[in-house]
Amino acid sequence: MKIFIVDDDHEVIEVMKAVLESNGHEVSSNVSGSRAVSDIMAMRPDCVITDLMMAALDGLDLCEEIRQKKELDKTKIVMVSAREAEHWKEKAVARGAVGYITKPIDPATFTEQLMAIVESAR
């Protein structure tokens, strides 16, 4: 699966990338939501994992931008955030995400959790 990660924390990206690549996925990333849009358009990933809280363009706005691109209509978006309140999960889904994973991620179960969300959204 082709996966694109957007998170303003380099360490979080590195952990997710290492876990996903070790499970056979092709992974690209960017630390800026606003700069990631063109990279996502070029890659046309199967899944975008985005942090909720980022400067300039946050995860909710990124969801909306991706959903406005006809070429990305099949791309699944999964929000990842330390925010646990249910209303954040509802906002993410309302803006186009298919699922929500709470940080900190567990490297032992992250890929399985992500794949379950993506599969259930097909």
The structural domain count equals: 1
Radius of gyration computed on alpha carbons: 13 Å
Order of helices and strands: EHEHEHEHEH
Our measurement of the CA-to-CA distance between the termini, rounded to an integer number of angstroms, reads: 14 Å
- Tell me about the biggest sheet? 5 strands, parallel
Strands across the major sheet, in which order? 2-1-3-4-5
Structure class: alpha/beta
Helix content: 40-55%
TL;DR of this structure?
The protein is an alpha/beta fold and 122 residues long. It is built from five helices and five strands.
Please give a structural write-up.
The chain has one domain (2-120): Rossmann fold (3-Layer(aba) Sandwich), CATH 3.40.50. It is built from 5 helices and 5 strands; from the N terminus they run βαβαβαβαβα. It has helices spanning 10-22, 33-43, 59-67, 86-94, 110-120; strands at 2-6, 26-30, 47-51, 76-81, 99-102. The chain has a 5-stranded parallel sheet with strand order 2-1-3-4-5, sandwiched between helices. α2 (33-43) packs parallel to α3 (59-67). The chain starts with a strand and ends with a helix.
List the SSEs and their pairings.
Blueprint: E1 2-6, H1 10-22, E2 26-30, H2 33-43, E3 47-51, H3 59-67, E4 76-81, H4 86-94, E5 99-102, H5 110-120
Parallel strand pairs: 1-2, 1-3, 3-4, 4-5
Helix pairs in contact: 2-3
